[in-house]
Amino acid sequence: MDSAIQAIEFLARSEHRVAALEALSEEPRDRRDLRDATGASDPTIGRVIRDLEDRSWLAREGARYELTPLGAYVTDRFFELREGMRTGERLREVWRWLPREMEGFAVEHYEDAVVAYPGPNYPYAPVERVTHLLESTASIRGLGTTLYKSGNLDVFCRRVIEGMETEYVYSPPVLRAIVDWNPELTARALGCDNCTVFLHDALPDDSRCGLNVMDDCIGICGHDPETAQLEAVIDTRSPEAREWAEDVYARCRSEARQFDVGELAPDASRSPEGRLRVEPR
Length: 281
What we know:
CATH class of the largest domain: Alpha Beta
Domain Methanogenesis regulatory protein FilR1 middle: 123-254
Distance between the termini: 52 Å
CATH architecture of the largest domain: 2-Layer Sandwich
Strand order of the largest sheet: 4-10-9-8-5-6-7-11
Largest sheet: 8 strands, mixed
Protein name: Transcriptional regulator
CATH topology of the largest domain: Endonuclease, Chain A
Strand content: 15-25%
Oligomer: single chain
CATH superfamily of the largest domain: Endonuclease Chain A
Low-confidence stretches: none
Helix content: 40-55%
């Protein structure tokens, strides 16, 4: 086995070694401090100290122990790996909806992401997350390629009518489905002075996900590639993710055309076959 993998295994199979490095990365500690920080017994913490000293990661200065420069380097890299693996586990169930065409997307900006997707016993997590996000923001900008459920659209329209500052770049089929769902309510909402709507015929990742920029976070809404129905929500407060989302939105908005509210009238002559539809709940 590669020696680097062996070193990772050496740490990963001992929670006390990891806890000791975590404590020592904050400040030097004496033996009692390390025992308290790790929850290890005195004999165990003795073995941990010897193990770390044998690898030149730890040195004693008087009664206290501190990381060597090598130990600080190894600790930083190990914790970076741990955070990367945590992010991987967090996003594992929603990987298929992560952007691929939105330039600049980086997984590492989603270490603190909140992920909502239908579980085996409760399918409504994405719907409830969208409602929470809509109720928690005073403004929203987005790329509208995802069809929300009817309950989410009710909340969206109500929030717009209540004054939520709204600017959206829609895929035409998605906007048409929303208008068909409730022509009167959508005309009222999208006709508000605080709501500006654009259309774009080729939004990036339009078969995979949409994007929202809200007051305190940004959100990715994953959807079914055929029906555009909401499948998952991934949102984060990461400043780096926000900067990325702002750039993506600005580029798409600059390419979009203004939407005329007069186009909201439903067209009865169009065939319903192959048309996107809003689903209940």
